[in-house]
Amino acid sequence: MASKKAVAVLRPAINGFGPRLLRAECAQKVQYSTRTLASPASRPRKPEQQSRQAVRFASSEAPKEQLGKTGLYELHSKHGAKFVPFGGYSMPVQYSDLSIIDSHNWTREKASLFDVGHMVQHHFSGPGAEAFLESITPSSLSSLPECQSILSTLLHAETGGIVDDTVITRLHDKFYVVTNAGCREKDTAYFKEQLEAWKSEHPDQPVEWKILDGQGLVALQGPLSAEILARVLDDKSVQDLETLYFGQCTAATIKDTDAEVLVSRGGYTGEDGFEISIPSYATEAITEFLLDSAKDELRFAGLGARDTLRLEAGMCLYGHDLDDTTTPVEAALSWIIGKDRRTKGGFHGDSVILQQLKKKSEGGGVSRRRIGLIVEGSPAREGAEIVDGAGEKIGKITSGCPSPTLKKNIAMGYIKDGMHKAGTEVDVVVRGKKRKAVVTKMPFIPSKYFKQPANAKA
């Protein structure tokens, strides 16, 4: 029944993203660091008690009358979604069938589907696209294979501060870039300004920039994700899926239709999973097809569970754990800086960032570093102070919550350099009282990405 339903809705040929173009672009598999998702079961379920857990929903909110809606808004409503403002959109925070904690656990045990269509999808193409993106990020894009993706950051020219975090994928003749919804206006202004400067300085290396408005984006996340996704793909795509490793992406065709999607393997939750970019006309139908294909294994999940899942996985949320005043080195993201970029530079803020990478004896280092914490007693929320034994402030919390998986209070924040080593004991001030805490390595729980064997050929 699900297949016939999907066929009826999805039969029109894709315009814009281009099924045949995608197939050509992603004939090869790609490494991808991505923000991933989870899925809900579509049959009605008895509403359960709502979670009272506090969750940060957005780095910026627009007035209610100005909130946008993704292509799945109506489908969320049918599934009993409770909406909140997030990044200028009305987004589901949870659903009537599961509390936030239950949804979190469902994702860890089965699979969940998250709507991330509020995020901004871009294409950068033209002779100067690679060099342009390398000028504003610390990534080694020149050595990035086709259909491979990397986590990166957009940088301020003078300070090396993070404008936004992003995922960049090389396709056949363009770069596919995903940025955060809460930074839409800021990023748009940033790209316009940077492209104008590039055009003036490099007139012989033109760059074309396109925002994929209306393009759907969902994240399927959890241990059953691959099995569930395989049910809705044609035979050729299923074969491709079997050898698609973490960090790779491919074009795939939905079973019994001509609808093609871009499937990237990775996750914002630490689980195995996929991020699926879908043509606007087919977003709702394909999402329903996924849900109907796994009614007892897949459910929608909202921002509440996404926040606790990503924190357990040690993932940053822009506007909280990252901002314009923070450099990749301070944010413990030095690993995103390409090896060749460390010697050649040539990117925004390189003088600041490359100096920070040096040893202290060479005048390098930073004054603060991002760390994880296990906190005793009450959970530490954003803004809580981290203090030393003498009560002196040495840092602050940027994210925190009770961990449904560990049954402990976990937090992320910035601490004075030298106090950042795992095992260091500190205090966190929660509602005026000191709570003992221990600096802890992240992720807080082991990641379960489907990675390529170390001895496999590149």
Describe this structure in words.
The chain is α+β, with helices and mostly antiparallel strands and 458 residues long. Among the domains are: 2-49 and 59-117 and 215-312, Gyrase A, domain 2 (2-Layer Sandwich), CATH 3.30.1360.120; 368-445, Elongation Factor Tu (Ef-tu), domain 3, CATH 2.40.30. The protein is 23% helix and 26% strand. It contains twelve helices and 18 strands. It has a six-stranded antiparallel β-barrel with strand order 13-16-15-14-17-18. Strands 3-9-12-11-10 form a five-stranded antiparallel beta sheet, with helices on both faces. Strand 6 (162-170) and strand 7 form a beta hairpin. Helix 1 packs antiparallel against helix 9 (283-293), helix 4 packs across helix 10 (303-312) and helix 7 (225-231) packs antiparallel against helix 8. The longest helix has 18 residues, at 184-201. The radius of gyration is 22 Å and the shape is globular. Mean pLDDT is 89; it is low at 1-9 and 11-64.
> What fraction, in percent, of the residue positions are helical?
10-25%
Which CATH architecture of the domain at 2-49 and 59-117 and 215-312 is right? 2-Layer Sandwich
| SSE series | HHHEEHEEHEEEHEEHHEEEHHHHEEEEEE
Low-confidence stretches: 1-9, 11-64
Overall body shape: globular
Number of strands: 18
The number of helical runs is 12
Order the strands across the largest sheet as they lie in space: 13-16-15-14-17-18
Q: What's the pLDDT, averaged over the residues?
A: 89
Identify the quaternary structure here: single chain
Strand content: 25-35%
**How many angstroms does the end-to-end distance come to?**
41 Å
CATH class descriptor of the domain at 2-49 and 59-117 and 215-312: Alpha Beta
